[in-house]
Design a protein that fits this description.
Helix content is 37%, strand content 20%. The strands form two sheets. Strands 1, 2, 3, 4, 5, 6, 7, 8, 9 and 12 form a ten-stranded mixed beta sheet that branches. The mean pLDDT is 94. The chain has 298 residues and is an alpha/beta fold.
Length: 298
């Protein structure tokens, strides 16, 4: 029997939801459940789900909304599948996404997640040129050793595996800490939430990379813009992810660890020294600065 895959859609905006929902319904892998967590203040998402009745779909209304981390965590908690596939409400899955990722995962024992190339599209669904982070991770589909890939992600400080819509993973490989799927040790990740999640999985197993584009990440003007405090978290989390990664067994080579610390510290100093930064941004970095070795703050 085919294993059950839970496609989880933490929804807030109805603008592109119908397209995302339709791409979940169109999966060629038969044994899926599609779980929608509706944080939308209005009734639009409920109406779209109701307009396409399907026994594979479960719908849960959240009022008041659970927020970013809360919605992701709630859906993970109620998922019934052996495998988890998140889908953001403005992204798309190729019809064979789940099937191809699952087939790849089963090529090597101990594989806990699978990802693929993803396309960039605009609000109209038109293909956009690749950016650095969406360049193919590898030229051919293959299995990757978990810790080696994790080291690469930390050292490059770039999420080359992709957004939540790109990755499929084993449910039993992830332990929720302190009630949040994006909690790692003492830290709640926001800016690097997905990257921190992939690293936790890579600390216990391997990854499959598929060279075919199996999802599309949409860039559009309606996406949330980061506040000054949120932008500061991006700088801070690039330091935290080095600390948490090392504690999880990554960067065991002293040269790798030194390089990662140097990269994160240099990045912190660069943004701390920017004179054009908003006061809230600078205040957040100043509060965190005692955690950074003095050599990067001189």
């Amino acid at each position: 029997m085919q294993p059950l895959v839970s496609i989880l859609i933490p929804a807030y905006s109805p603008r592109f939801f119908a397209q995302a929902f339709g791409s979940a319904l169109a999966q060629t892998w038969a044994n899926v459940e599609i779980v929608v967590g509706d944080d939308c203040p209005g009734e639009e998402i409920r109406a779209i789900v109701a307009s396409r009745p399907d026994p594979r779909v479960r719908y849960e209304r959240h009022q008041p909304g659970l927020g970013f981390s809360g919605n992701f965590t709630r859906l993970f908690e109620i998922a019934r599948g052996e495998y988890i596939k998140y889908l953001n409400d403005d992204d798309l899955l190729a019809p064979a996404c789940v099937q191809n990722l699952l087939v790849g995962m089963h090529k090597h024992p101990g594989t806990v997640l699978a990802s693929s190339r993803r396309l960039l599209i605009d609000a109209e669904g038109r293909r956009l040129p690749d950016e650095d982070v969406t360049q193919p991770l590898l030229p051919a589909s293959q299995t990757l050793e978990g810790r080696a890939l994790g080291n690469h992600l930390i050292l490059s400080s770039t999420n080359r595996l992709g957004e939540p819509s790109t990755v499929l993973f084993r449910r039993d490989a992830l332990r929720v800490e302190c009630g949040s799927i994006f909690r790692w040790g003492d830290n709640e990740y926001l800016c690097l939430a997905d990257m921190s999640l992939w690293l936790r999985l890579l600390s216990v197993g391997h990854a499959w990379w598929d060279q075919e584009p199996l999802s599309a990440y949409r860039q559009h003007g309606g996406q949330l813009q980061r506040s000054a405090h949120g932008a500061a978290r991006c700088v801070i989390e690039r330091w935290l992810i080095v600390e948490d990664g090392a504690r999880a067994g990554f960067l065991s080579d002293p040269e790798h660890h030194a390089k990662a610390v140097r990269n994160a510290g240099t990045n912190f100093r660069y943004w701390s020294d920017r004179e054009d930064s908003p006061p809230e941004f600078k205040a957040a970095l100043a509060e965190f600065a005692p955690r950074i070795p003095a050599e990067f703050l001189a």
